[in-house]
Amino acid sequence: MRGHGFLLANYVPGNSLIHRTPLALKFLLVFGCGLASFIIVDWRISLGMLGLLSGFFLLTGAGLKKLWGAIRPLTAVLLVIGLFQWWQLGAPTAARIVLNILVCVVAASLLTATTPVQKLLDGVVKAATPFRRLGADPERFALTIGIMLRSIPYIAGTFADVRDSARARGLERNPRALILPVFITSVAFARQTGEALAARGLGEPED
pLDDT tens for residues 127-151? Predict the structure, then answer.
């Protein structure tokens, strides 16, 4: 199984200013960019934000290839969204929507590329701790995110491998040849993950 990044950049060790920025500020950056995507109404501001965040990303030492790897899986979806919005609302609005999505993706990638996964999960636990009084379980929440971060690249890699195999057999246009193997592999992966959690006494409600 090939390793695949999916949407967000993997951690890249380094000692840049972004690496040394407190995790809370990085969380605020991602939250702020998500909020800004609802507020910004001018595509030129979105473009400026995207350029600024991309510059920050390159300053981390992650490189242009890593940045493109985080964006590339979205290109087809963004093209469809952009063309539809252009048809419905015009070019400026279409550009703003696509650019705002990219701003959010690059901001999140800036977080994941400069923060080790364990530190990221520890930060999630700390941020969710105040909600414990409402019945939330921060550790389980972080565990869920950890499993998600591991599962999405695995399933994306499965799809890529199945697609390549189907193409080699001339079946790339056969939905069954693509969907069924991915479905079976994903279910098997989910069962293995569940069994591993159960063996460690995780994932079950406490008495």
Answer: 667 667 776 666 665 566 655 555 5
Q: How many domains are there within the chain?
A: 2
- Number of other residues whose CB lies within 10 A of the CB of residue 94: 19
Q: Which two tokens stand for residue 76?
A: 């087809």
- Check whether residue 159 and residue 181 sit in a common domain: yes
Whole-angstrom distance, CA of residue 120 vs CA of residue 160: 27
Q: What are φ and ψ of residue 6, in 5° steps?
A: -145, 110
Kindly state whether residues 12 and 95 are assigned to the same domain.
Answer: yes
Q: How far apart are CA 203 and CA 195, in angstroms?
A: 10
What are the tens digits of pLDDT across the range 21-76? 888 888 888 888 888 877 888 899 999 999 998 988 888 888 788 888 778 777 87
On whether both 110 and 90 belong to a single domain, the answer is: yes
Query: Taking Cα atoms as reference points, which of 52, 72, 51 lies closest to residue 8?
Result: 72
130 CB burial (10 A radius; 0-12, 13-18, 19+)? exposed
